[in-house]
Amino acid sequence: MTGDAFFKTVSHFFPKLTKWLQSVDDPRNKNKIIYEPSHLLWLGIFLFLLRLGSKRKIKYKLATEDFLKNLNKLCTGYSENVAHHDTVEYLLQRLEPEELYGVRQKMVNRLIRMKALEKYRLLEEYYMIAVDGTGHLMFKERHCPHCLTKKKDGKILYYYHNVLEAKLVTGTGLALSVETEFIQNSDGETKQDCELNAFYRMAKRLKRRFPQLKICLLLDSLYAAGPVIDISEEYGWKYITVFKRGSMPERYEEFCQLKKLCPENEIELANDKASQKYSWVGDIDHKGNYFDVIELNEATLDKKTSLYG
Q: Which of 7, 83, 219, 274 lies in disulfide reach of 87, CB 3.0 to 4.6 Å?
């Protein structure tokens, strides 16, 4: 993408982005500030957009007259030089994360209000939000009391932090972060417990930040649990969850038994690559909340079979 195309894209979708970056609550000493927040935060953004890989490359890749000219066009003020990467790091280490979360929320709200994502809604109504944990940081020594641990034969191999991400996704592969929650370790909790507890914390903020948004959560089998269903129903969210034998065992067994009683709820499809058999049961009761289950049994030409629920 050329510089002009980038400016046009930002101006079209996020005309106030620089203003939002500039308006963060800057924790630095006001009497010693040389570079505006927007200058430093744009450098942080370009660090990822240009896939520089290391903050030190700001000095070696971006400290050019052409880049400085373009950066000044983006920012509110004029700078004589591109800031040193240590200056960028100094701000980011002290800036409250909530300040950048607020910018993210404004960006997502802007896309929703300008209807840029409408055509990607499920059933022309629900924005699909995928929730999943992912690796974030890894350390040889314990970083903090909330570190997770990777063990083998009772020996700690390394410490790490995982993060739970909620992303607004589309069928084209676009994934926009809308909420983030660090997965914290507590005594006696398994990795699955930690991730579920992170979801409970994150769900409250997601509802608070987007109270009117019609949402369909996309979840893996870990979230096929009663409390997740209860929260989704309470907040008015729809949900699509991977459903396995170990997920809510009583409800899974109920599905298996009801499926036998409903042979008409089946359809088979085939193409030159695989044959597929769909089975479904509706209105399975969980504490007064009802959900539907669809099962796909797929067999490929090379005799490999897969079961999805």
A: 83
